[in-house]
Amino acid sequence: MNNKILENFPQTKNTVNGRPLVYLDSAATTLKAKNVIQRLSDFYLYESANVHRGAHKLSDEATFHFEQSRELIREFINAHNANEIVFTRGTTEAINLLAFTLKKQLKSGDKILITELEHHSNIVPWQMILAEVPGLQLEYVKITPNGDLDLIDLDKKLDKQTKILSFTACSNVLGTLNPVKLICQKAKHVGAKTIVDAAQWVAARPTNVRDWGCDFLVFSGHKMFAPFGIGVLYGREDLLNSLSPYQGGGSMIDQVEKQKSTYLNSPQRFEAGTPNVGGAIALAEAIKFISSIGFDLIEKHEKTLIDETLDRMQEVEGLKVIGKPQLRSNILSFSLQGAHHSDVGTLLDKQGVAIRAGHHCCQILMKALGVTGTARVAFSIYSTHKDVENLIMGLKKIRELI
Fold first, then answer.
1. For a designed S-S bond to 221, which of 82, 230, 275, 386 qualifies (C-beta 3.0 to 4.6 A apart)?
2. Given pLDDT bands bounded at 50, 70 and 90, which one contains residue 1?
3. Is 214 marked active-site?
């Protein structure tokens, strides 16, 4: 990746334990782009005002930038219109919002279908509503030994009782890239609503909700170079307007009387209270940044580093890559014989290499893989060939210690 991009990420120049930082934890969160943070800072320093209903110029300008951000996100994922874009705190809140509101449309005998690849944020919310809808079922689509989604098992379990199919576009553990459009077509055939977790997808490859035919899609800003605390729920406008509000308060009401209230349509009905205005504006700036680089370059760069890493890992005795999906993103997990995954993470950190170790909020997947946890590396646009070299050198040093 060129120096101009690296200069936008000053954190890459940090040192850790006296060593140059090698940041390989981009699946947990990406580093934040300098121009994105500058845009956030400028809003708070020079433009800060609450949106909507303001009677002054600053409020009008904040509202303009806030709604302009919504429109930019609409364009980024190719939604029909901006009313289909709801701002949330992130992927987790967006899925909880859907679970809370969709449960009112579920009854005994209905089925929710998810997969063994899911993050806990796409498991626990559905488990929580099981107790509230007696007779509701929750089933899991299996994975293949390679770590791909088992489409044969999907066909067996996807039936007329399935009302919701919620699945990840990209595994945060194995890097498995799922055939989103095909899965949505299968769900549509039986009348199931589809929810796509695109948290690990949107920063590196195009997202097209209309082409995919999904009903809902969720993602987080902090995994695409933007600040924490901002995310997006996309939903087809007719479906969003059929759902009850998730929270009550200002901004989401039409009329309030002493005993009842009426509500606005999407997106306002799901954005009670003061929104994260600065976060939304910064997220839009991050999207501009991604667009200026281009997905072709981003995907090519990340694939080059992943392929190089897979090749170089063969040099490390006792190292086993977990999973071999047909299509892999910027993420891979591994184990090192004789070393606990947490120890691998700690020992690499001593050498300035930042990875993630544990179950990665995917305990169902860990059980399916037959492991308690893994060490995980995840690249991004600021990652370099030198990072790969330092990772391999670090793993070889660990190998010498055990």
1. 230
2. low
3. no
